[in-house]
Amino acid sequence: MRGTRAAAARTVGAVLVGAATVLATAGPAAADPGPPGPADGLRQTVECTPTGPGGPGAAPPPSPPPAGLATGAGQLVAVIDTGVAPLPRLAGRVRGGGDYLTGGDGLTDCDGHGTGVALILAGAADPVTGGGAGIAPATELLSLRQSSTRFVVDDTDGAERPAGEIATLASAIERAVALGASVINVSQVVCVPAEVADDAGSVLHAAVTEAVAADVLLVAAAGNTDPSGTCTGAPGLRPLPASYDEVLAVGAVDALDEPAGFSIAGPWVDVAAPGVDLPAPAGPEGSVVSGTSYAAPVVAGTAALLRERFPMLTADQVAGRILATARRPAAGRDDRVGSGVVDPAAALTAEPLLLAPRHRGGPAGTARVPLPVAAPQPPELPAAAGVGAVAAAGGALALALTAVRRRPAHRGGVPAPGWPAASAGDVGRVAGVRQVQRSGPRQ
């Protein structure tokens, strides 16, 4: 299957760089494409950068989730990126799903990008300071490594291309679904001309469709403009997979909720999250990172919290709560931040249980169903470590959930497979030096 996909990607010259449901019922599980083997023609061109054990962890969330409601316990979130190193703050909660570059387990990160994404999403708090916890610090992670700027692939025609393709991204999504992920975070992107998007991304869109059928929520970075990559900011480009209707696309804002200048705007953007000058999750101390790559895991982590607290909701209904409770722009929905800036606290506590995104028009709520009541948190557990047990309302709640609408299409048309991707051209600054990271498909 991987060979077929790779051939299709080469054919189009595309390489990846950088309603009426009452209970959440998963569709048929996607067929597992199996453990990936090493990529043909792979060659390392740059030494790996060791991932440091320290760092500040995650930046404080925009609105911290109330203690005791949810921590992501029981959820498996797939991180499809440059790999995730099992640092102490992730110890015991990250497992390998596969490596589409070298054929390993996915727990090697030469770039540091995927590890940073994982810490923002699910890193534990610093044992000394108590700070730096990710959005969902009890979530389990599944790492699938499918790109790296430290490698290239020598094609059969002698051409050199970045490691990581639309074909391997599609396979990674399929594998994440088959291995039981409830949420998938893709902090990678490739931009293709709209007129060829359907053909170029057909394999990827098929994988996304399979994830939706299995009731998996796919969160993707909207992408960063980068003149040296595929997302140049030129008109007529479509970021994949962010521009698919089935994907929750995330833009970046600064500390004042102002849209980031690098964040790719478009009708496909659903929501935004902090992604400007964040403390580098894995360090070194004093360094910062920026990019939609780092905004996406804030939303994916929020989704994990919601899937724990409201297990009766479908992935689509979880997306609806995120959109309906976002801090809305003064002028209403726009193409830079979508419905607004994600608000984890509001998403976990807003009533009614079923919410329709505001940008669709009409009332925000579709059913007056009370929220589940959180069990009291044991006083001996610190807030960062407490697992919010939720009392499910059972059959009565199921019968009450009736008129639920699907998340709307953002626009007409759906893009397609293989093109160079990179990690959104995310920017890191260390000691005043501005560096462009291209780990994984560009966002």
UniProtKB/TrEMBL annotation:
Position of the signal peptide: 1-31
Spans annotated as Disordered: 29-71
Positions annotated as active site in the UniProt record: D81, H113, S293
Annotated EC: 3.4.21.-
Class of enzymatic activity (EC top level): hydrolase
Major subcellular location class: membrane
Membrane topology: Single-pass membrane protein
Peptidase S8/S53 domain mapped to chain residues: 72-340
Similarity remark: Belongs to the peptidase S8 family.
Protein name: Thermophilic serine proteinase
Species for this entry: Pseudonocardia autotrophica (Amycolata autotrophica)
Organism taxonomic ancestry: Bacteria, Bacillati, Actinomycetota, Actinomycetes, Pseudonocardiales
